[in-house]
Amino acid sequence: MNRWFYRIWGLFSVFVLSVYLFQSLYDKIGLKHEPLTLVSPAFQVPMPPFAPAIFAPEFRELAPPQLELFDLDDAFATHEIQLAQLTNRCDRTREWPKDRTFLLRRVK
After folding, report:
1. Mind listing the pLDDT tens digit for each residue in 27-61?
2. Within a domain: residue 31?
3. Where does the chain cross the membrane (predicted)?
4. Are 73 and 89 in contact, with CB atoms under 8 Å apart?
5. Which of 23, 34, 46, 81 can pair with 77 through a Cys bridge, CB separation 3.0 to 4.6 Å?
6. What b-and-e string marks burial along 40-79, b requiring 16 or more CB atoms within 10 Å of the CB?
7. What is the extent of the structural domain holding 81?
8. Are 22 and 34 spatial neighbours (Cβ–Cβ below 8 Å)?
9. Residue 83 burial (CB < 10 Å; 0-12/13-18/19+)?
């Protein structure tokens, strides 16, 4: 081959002589020269394909609270407010003589 043939470059800077060299190499080794097959790319899908639910989800009832429920008004109320609440309870029932002992016990 002439010197100028070595200087010819193909598309994307591929040396044109390399194609001839590889074809002759196939003949020397004894392999069949077959054209390359196109392999379709398999891209990774970031999410699985969408499949809508057939049945609506069933939501369970919430569990009861782990701690006891406290009346914060009773816990943080002053003595005057607690006394007013006790007297209001006694006035609502209209049974003052029975509630009087209850009221006196609670006040002490």
Report:
1. 898 888 787 788 888 877 777 777 887 887 788 88
2. yes
3. 6-26
4. no
5. 81
6. eeeeeeeeeeeeeeeeeeeeeeeeeeeeeeeeeeeeeeee
7. 72-107
8. no
9. middle
Query: pTM of the prediction?
Result: 0.28
Angstrom distance (rounded) from CA 85 to CA 91? 10
For the chain, the domain total comes to: 2
* Domain presence at residue 60: no
At CA 66, angle to CA 60 and CA 67, rounded to 5? 145
CB distance 86 to 103 below 8 Å: yes
The letter for the amino acid at 33 is H
Q: What is the 3-state secondary structure (H, E, C) of 33-78?
A: CCCCCCCCCCCCCCCCCCCCCCCCCCCCCCCCCCCCCCCHHHHHCC
At 66, phi and psi to the nearest 5?
A: -70, -30
**Residue 101 placed within a domain:** yes
Does the pLDDT at position 10 exceed 50? no
